[in-house]
Amino acid sequence: MTRKVCIIGGATTPFDYGATGFESIEGGAAACVKETMEDIPEFRLRDIDLMVYSHFSVHFGHQLSSEWIIHDHLGLVGIPHYRVENGGNTGGSALYAAALAVLSGQHDVVGVIGWETMDSVSQSQGSEFIALASDTRYELLVGGIYPIYYAAMAHKWMKENKVTEEDVAHIAVKNRNNAMDNPKAQWYRNEHRYLTIDDVLSSRLISYPLKKYDCCLMTRGVAFVLVCSEDYARKVNPPQGYVTIDGMGLSSCTIRAGDRLTFPGWTERYGPGYPDMTEFAACRHSAEKAYKMANITNPLRDIHVGEIHDAFSTSEAQIYKALGITGDDVAMFLRDKQTHLEGELPMNPGGGLMGYGHPVGATGIMSTVECFYQLTDMIPRKHESSKTQVPDAECGLVNSHAGTGTSISNFILRRA
Amino acid sequence: MKKKYARKPQFQSPVTYRPVGVTETGLAFVGHEISPQDNLINQFLHYDQLYTIRQGRNSPFFLGLLEGKIRGTRCPQCGDLWVPPRIHCWNLDCNLKETEWVDVPPTARLHTWTVAGWSGRSSLKRLPIVLVYAVFTGSNVAIANELRGVDPWHVEFDMPLTATFIPPGERKGIITDFYFVPQKDWKPSSMNPEKERIKKLVQPVYDWVKTLK
Predict the structure, then answer these.
(1) What are residue A303's phi and psi, to 5 degrees?
(2) Which of A121, A122, A141 should be substituted to probe chain B, the one whose Cβ sees the most B Cβ atoms within 10 Å?
């Protein structure tokens, strides 16, 4: 990048669902900004020259343009603002928009606030709201919820890659148990227990091969991240340091997973038969762009920590493959626990969507904040202990993912 | 007389099949709860609205469903064929060529599948549901729909399927007007450890659904 884009801070509210989640969206947003101000004493709200808001569904809050409530509550009248919506990749897309704004030279200090209040309706109604992002004409009535589409995709992928239910259960256990070190994580705040492989395998069927504990959480939560030029980063000089966005990619795929068997746009890029209904082509494509920008040639070696979109245990495994870190034998890669804390490339030490939570518009921002904390050695301060700090992490990956892989972004962050 | 600049389609009287008790109440606050200790209030808002989904040039597909026919589209330039339909070609070299409608035989092959033990609010009582993605003969894409007529644990990749329609009087011109069944000559293979595993996971779903009101 010609002009460096930096991340200098960020925070989330505690992630909750139901009884423990009661804060208003502007209350949550203010809490995130105040926590960031405590981390960066020289940062002033009046330095912000653009706000990008990251929110998925107006159905949950029953409030259109709810970003307007947050924006003037923060005192930012006159500062330009807009909202980005891109399904589960809303957070990643908002970060992309913020980075472009700084990269262009038009803006210097861009705040990104994401939120979702999914506990405003019952869990089954909430699942149905999310499924409105499937093609309502052809798919909603027969599927009803997203996990069903993901299960059908994962079932075939697991067969082809010889991956077992137990292999992916290890991912579910990893992320939830990582969340047990993170007091803001929904799993920590609510169920609060260490999970075992047997717990996952014996939990209730959602849609084969997915069981309850293979699936992420529905969440109320808000997250904030502060994106800026390097000049501004140097000016405020955050005590913990800052990171640069060295690479970023955003790509797209079909809304209906069944449309991917022979799509000309993929055939001309990757050859016939790809991605079928099994691979996340938009993840591979956006990762390739991000890697190229950041001069990543061997992602498993060059990247030290990742916060990725584990909507399901299976999709985290599918993402590993799309990121190009598994080699040909995906099952062996999983069994080697390469993405556990002690592995080559720890993924979701913050808990991910299964442990921290998945308030859709806030999720990609949460992943960014966690990755930022890893690269600035802030985990011991922000989590309960240093257990989930990846030692000496210099380079991190943030992945945000929507639909059935319909929009996916990847970012490479480096310690400045 | 004022000149009309836009054509107005003449729709016949609507066919309605509104379930008893479904009403559009608009916005209504219907309750609240207070936590005196924490000085907090939660409020309950109810909202319902009738939507008109205008299918436009996709209409032949849904009209076909009412008639018990599967219709797809085909690009006259490159020959690609789609069920579900696309009204313009997806091939960038075809420059959004308008596609033509074709009747498609009801035979399909199972591409991938799952059995659901949980679903959205409106589908809970139908559980467990076998959802398949199947490719109609000649189609470039797979379509999602329900598979009936087979125990969930006996469903197999690549099995041959037939699209079957619900009775004409019950059709709504929506995707659930048809479902898949195994083709007549298909027989499942014998039980194996994976089938046993699926059966074990599905069994409690049958019991749970019986408890729903």
Answers:
(1) -100, 140
(2) A141
Any chain B CB within 8 A of the CB of A277? yes
Cβ neighbours of residue A80 under 8 Å, at least 6 residues apart?
A49, A50, A51
Residue B45 token pair: 């808002």
Is A337 within the bounds of a domain? no
Q: Within an 8 Å CB–CB cutoff, is residue A263 touching chain B?
A: yes
CA–CA separation, A17 and A29 (whole Å): 17
Sign of CA dihedral A266, A251, A105, A411: negative
Q: How many CB atoms are closer than 10 A to CB A40? A: 19
**What CATH number should be reported for the domain holding residue A225?**
3.40.47.10
Beta bridge partners of A401: A408
Residue A21 in any domain: the answer is: yes
| Interchain pair A138, B143: CB under 8 A | yes
Asked if A404 has any chain B CB less than 8 Å from its own CB, the reply is no
Q: Which of residues 50-89 of B touch A (CB under 8 A)?
A: 53, 55, 58, 80, 82, 84
B114·A152 Cβ contact <8 A: yes
Q: What secondary structure does DSSP assign to A380-397, as a single string?
A: HHHSSSSTT--TT--EEE
A344 contact partners, CB below 8 Å, separation of at least 6: A300, A301, A338
| Nearest-CA distance A204 → chain B (Å) | 7
In terms of Cβ atoms closer than 10 Å to its own Cβ (0-12, 13-18, 19+), residue B92 is: exposed
Which residues in chain B (115-134) have CB-CB distances under 8 A to chain A?
Answer: 115-124, 128-129, 131-133
Sheet (strand B100-104) strand order: B81-82, B70-74, B100-104
Helix (H, G, I), strand (E, B) or coil at B90: coil
Residue A30 lies in a domain: yes
Cβ B157–A159 below 8 Å, yes or no? yes
Q: For chain A, how many structural domains are there in total?
A: 1
Residue A312 domain flag = no
Asked whether the whole model's pTM tops 0.95, one would answer: yes
Range of the structural domain that residue A232 is part of = 5-118+219-236
- Paired strand residues for B45: B29
| Strands of B36-139, DSSP E | 40-46, 70-74, 81-82, 100-104, 107-116, 129-136
Cα torsion A11, A15, A20, A21 to 10°: value is: 80
The answer on pLDDT for B119 being more than 90 is: no
- A236 CB-near residues (< 8 Å, 6+ apart): A8, A40, A42, A43, A47
For each of chain A's 416 residues, which pLDDT tens digit applies? 479 999 999 999 999 998 777 889 999 999 999 999 999 999 999 999 999 999 999 999 889 999 999 999 999 999 999 999 999 999 999 999 999 999 999 999 999 999 999 999 988 888 889 999 999 999 988 877 899 999 999 999 999 999 999 999 999 999 999 999 999 999 999 999 999 999 999 999 999 999 999 999 999 999 999 999 999 999 999 999 999 999 999 999 999 999 999 999 999 999 999 999 999 999 999 999 999 999 999 999 999 999 999 999 999 999 999 999 999 999 999 999 999 999 999 999 999 999 999 999 999 999 999 999 999 999 999 999 999 999 999 999 999 999 999 999 999 999 99
* Residue type (1 letter), A22: F
Is the backbone peptide bond immediately before B193 cis, with ω within 30 degrees of 0?
A: no
Q: Does A61 touch chain B (CB under 8 A)?
A: no
Coil, strand or helix at A302: helix
